[in-house]
Specification:
- With about 230 residues, this protein is an alpha+beta fold.
- It has two helices and 14 strands; from the N terminus they run αββββββββββββββα.
- The protein folds into two domains: about 190 residues, Jelly Rolls, CATH 2.60.120; about 25 residues.
- The protein binds calcium ion (CA).
- Calcium ion binds next to β3.
Length: about 230
């Protein structure tokens, strides 16, 4: 019973984990030290004034557990200090601006906010590598375009501390940016990041027909015997 109940629970998810080992799932390599602003000022009036959204498509159904990305500080002679991050995953959507149609981030699928520097490690100058293991894995399907945004909490201050997600390559060559509430749907190039996690199976396992029919046959025999006893007694 426990075995079948467990399988039923897994089947309800529609996805089964192949391996507990995180494997590389998607990568856009570092391109150069330029980038796009993505930042939330947690105390200033500007607030979340810039968000970069990057699109990606997986080749296998997967559970995303880990991200890496490359970014850096600019706009001031000092870097300031990041105090936290928000990572979000989105479904795909369509935006029509004048004669043009763009794919853009749509419904939010997952949000994770956390404090700290996300393992900030100096790469060169004011450019850093970052990484984070999600507290809750995000299950995504193969062949479907999704979007991810990464926004640090960084006080602008009087010196104008700013952070940008650095340029990358390997995607479709464009990102979407929300800049003070305006959607800029065709910025280029890509930004640098990677996803890793666990591969998932899309098919629920099939039960052995012998296991499901044998107990029913056994129950049938028992009922038949009991019915026969009742007839004898009456
Ligand atoms: Ca892209």
């Amino acid at each position: 019973m426990f075995f079948r109940t467990a399988l039923s629970a897994l089947a309800l998810t529609g996805l089964l984990t192949f391996s507990a080992q995180a494997v590389p799932l998607y990568n856009q390599a570092f391109l150069n030290n330029l980038g796009w602003s993505s930042q939330n000022d947690p105390i200033g009036p500007e607030g979340n004034f810039a968000t970069v959204y990057e699109n990606f498509t997986l080749s296998s159904d997967a559970s995303i557990t880990d991200l890496t990305w490359i970014g850096g500080y600019f706009g001031s002679v000092t870097t300031g200090t990041i105090t936290g991050w928000t990572i979000q995953f989105y479904a795909d959507d369509i935006l029509v601006q004048g004669p043009d149609t763009y794919t853009v981030p749509g419904a939010v699928l997952a949000t994770e906010s956390f404090s700290g520097l996300a393992n900030q490690t100096l790469r060169s100058g004011t450019t850093y590598d970052y990484s984070h293991t999600l507290a809750t894995a995000v299950n995504l399907q193969a062949g479907v375009q999704y979007w991810v945004s990464i926004v640090p909490d960084l006080v602008l201050g009087n010196e104008g501390h700013q952070w940008e997600w650095k340029n990358g390559s390997g995607g479709d060559g464009r990102i979407v940016q929300n800049w003070f509430g305006s959607i800029l749907p065709d910025q280029s190039p890509d930004v640098a990041f990677s996803l890793s996690g666990n591969l998932l199976a899309t098919e629920a396992p099939e039960l052995d027909p012998g296991r499901s029919t044998l107990p029913l046959a056994f129950v049938g025999c028992i009922l038949g015997v009991l019915a026969g006893r009742r007839r004898v007694v009456s």
